[in-house]
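Tokens in:
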């Protein structure tokens, strides 16, 4: 009898040790747009250089991200002119970066890295999306589209108010992003048909950091690459300098 009890105890322990850890749902959100800032973010296309706007999030454990949302303006364009949707994930500088070269921006501290860590896109067939118009005429008080310049000309104050369709994109990643525990930046990009159309990522309220370690929205274009500028402080200044977060959410499961 004693041997039988010992056998069952050993078997139970082996089953517990061999069983995979249960996955927990993961979700993250920066909130809804506040109408203060609209920052361009688009892949390269005919007659248009690439622009990337980025905002950060933190993963406390390895996570599979299979869904995201982000909200922006379709400026000089409409829902029917969407041609590509792309999402990039960057780590925080100095990861994936050349730290020995000369920088052409005020700082790279807490910026995205030089190169992307991972990406998904409709062009590659590993991203699917739906787009819903939330407001046919949404006004943002300021914008950054073309005024993205290296130091010492980085400060422009922004390019003024813009209006367009407020659109929320729901995107699914297949396969999911398989990310380790780390600090990352999320970069959504939308290509619109036509020379004048742009997707402008909308900001959310940021009276201060939304979570411990919260950074802020950064931006660059192909001419500034691999450097980045802060949308607030570098491009849009003030006393105190404003900071912005982009409107997005993420969901998946921890591993």
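Residues out:
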């Amino acid at each position: 009898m004693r041997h039988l009890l010992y056998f069952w105890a050993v078997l139970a322990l082996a089953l517990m040790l061999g069983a995979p850890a249960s996955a927990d749902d993961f979700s993250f959100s920066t909130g809804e747009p506040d109408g203060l800032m609209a920052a361009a973010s688009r892949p390269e296309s005919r007659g248009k250089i690439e622009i990337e706007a980025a905002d950060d999030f933190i993963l406390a454990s390895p996570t599979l991200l299979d869904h995201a949302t982000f909200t922006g303006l379709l400026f000089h364009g409409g829902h029917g002119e969407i041609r590509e949707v792309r999402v990039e994930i960057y780590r925080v500088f100095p990861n994936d970066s050349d730290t020995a070269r000369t920088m052409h921006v005020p700082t790279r501290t807490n910026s995205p890295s030089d190169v992307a860590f991972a990406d998904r896109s409709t062009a590659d067939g590993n991203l699917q999306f739906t787009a819903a118009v939330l407001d046919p005429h949404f006004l943002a008080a300021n914008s950054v589209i073309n005024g993205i310049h290296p130091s010492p000309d980085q400060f422009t104050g922004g390019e003024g108010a813009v209006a367009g369709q407020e659109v929320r994109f729901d995107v699914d990643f297949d396969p999911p992003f398989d990310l380790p525990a780390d600090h990352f930046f999320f970069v959504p990009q939308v290509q619109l048909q036509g020379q004048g159309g742009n997707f402008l990522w909308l900001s959310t309220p940021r009276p201060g950091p939304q979570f411990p370690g919260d950074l802020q929205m950064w931006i660059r274009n192909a001419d500034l690459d691999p450097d980045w500028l802060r949308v607030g402080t570098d491009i849009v200044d003030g006393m105190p300098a404003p900071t912005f977060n982009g409107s997005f959410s993420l969901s998946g499961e921890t591993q």
